[in-house]
């Protein structure tokens, strides 16, 4: 039985959400194919309690010189540690977001700041090289975008502009997770007349990915 951690970054709305429908297609297929797995979901756009703020920086600086934390720092650190432990314990990661200006939503960036912790998810070798501590895990990135960045609708390959996917992959690599792939629903705004066909094809890819992830 695997532990699956879903990091979803998109505000909940009552209107049609392409991102949510794309994700639901994937996760429904996953649940059907892996009924024994445990799935934990966090919508970090709705709840992001541990930003990289002055408390977090103070905790980091005090750790460098082995100084005790004050009560506010201790509460922050203990609560944040639960999220780090949860990330370390997971076997699979699912990152879900719409593209925002060629990047991921700021809340997802904040989440990655939480879990990218020296001595817990990566460390520095004696040569000063970053080395991951999380091995044997896998991750997938589900992303929606109005434009076509990955040739999904037959356009040119503009994946170099997808800075968010590159960033997630780079951070995971530092932490030792190299089994990482992307799944995209994109081009609906660029080709609105073909949006239904584009989404149908994306849903098919999501269903297949859910079965095999």
Automatic annotation (TrEMBL):
Annotated residues for binding of FMN: 99-102, 144-147
Enzyme class: oxidoreductase
GO molecular function: electron transfer activity; FMN binding; oxidoreductase activity, acting on NAD(P)H as acceptor; oxidoreductase activity, acting on NAD(P)H, quinone or similar compound as acceptor
Residues annotated as domain Flavodoxin-like fold: 3-208
Cofactor: FMN
The entry's keywords: Flavoprotein, FMN, NAD, Oxidoreductase
Catalytic activity: 2 a quinone + NADH + H(+) = 2 a 1,4-benzosemiquinone + NAD(+); N,N-dimethyl-1,4-phenylenediamine + anthranilate + 2 NAD(+) = 2-(4-dimethylaminophenyl)diazenylbenzoate + 2 NADH + 2 H(+)
Function according to Swiss-Prot or TrEMBL: Also exhibits azoreductase activity. Catalyzes the reductive cleavage of the azo bond in aromatic azo compounds to the corresponding amines.
Family that this chain belongs to: Belongs to the azoreductase type 1 family.
Protein's recorded name: FMN dependent NADH:quinone oxidoreductase
Gene for this chain: azoR
């Amino acid at each position: 039985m695997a532990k699956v951690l879903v990091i979803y970054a998109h505000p909940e709305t009552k209107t049609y959400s392409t991102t949510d429908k794309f994700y639901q297609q994937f996760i429904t297929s996953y649940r059907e194919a892996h009924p024994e797995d445990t799935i934990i979901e966090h919508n970090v756009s709705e709840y992001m309690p541990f930003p990289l703020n002055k408390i977090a920086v103070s905790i980091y600086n005090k750790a460098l010189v082995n100084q005790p934390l004050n009560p506010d720092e201790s509460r922050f650190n203990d609560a944040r540690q639960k999220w780090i432990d949860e990330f370390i314990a997971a076997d699979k990661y699912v990152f879900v977001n719409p593209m925002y200006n060629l990047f991921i939503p700021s809340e997802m960036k904040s989440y990655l700041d939480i879990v990218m912790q020296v001595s817990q998810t990566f460390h520095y070798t004696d040569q000063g090289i970053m080395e991951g501590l999380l091995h044997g895990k896998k991750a997938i990135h589900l992303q929606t975008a109005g434009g076509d960045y990955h040739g999904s609708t037959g356009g040119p390959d503009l994946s170099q502009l997808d800075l968010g996917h590159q960033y997630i992959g780079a951070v995971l690599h530092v932490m030792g997770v190299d089994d990482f792939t992307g799944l995209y629903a994109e081009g609906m705004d660029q080709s609105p007349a073909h949006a239904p066909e584009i989404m149908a094809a994306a849903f098919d890819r999501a269903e297949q990915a859910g079965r095999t992830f």
